[in-house]
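Annex B. Sample input.
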Amino acid sequence: HTHYLTGLLAILALSSLAGCSGSDPARREYPVTGTVKFDGQPVETGSVLFRAVDGDQRGFSGAIQNGNYELKATAGKMKVQITATRIIPGKFQELNPGEKSPVGEMYIPDRYNSQTELTAEVQPQKNTIDFDLKK
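Annex B, continued. Sample output.
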């Protein structure tokens, strides 16, 4: 008899949790895909971060690979931050004696990340949002 009650309580708890996440449209996440270019060239690797302007300001991030990204975000107006680094040819640092490591640089200007001017509007559907960044 105790196993029956324990099982029933577990099922009720799980079903109530599932109901909460799916029924609140403000928390539902929608797919966002797109391309990221810098000075006309695809950004090889980096990241895209969408942060809600209103409400809880949750962040939604996705990796950039070969100029493409994908993530899921709630609907609404977002601030967008884009970061990417690249190796500086011929420049090395020696953190451990005798071990040379290539030096990287953040090459996307601050106005697209730490002091972003970028925004996007995520619609309650599948979204394609491209970014063509300039120096």
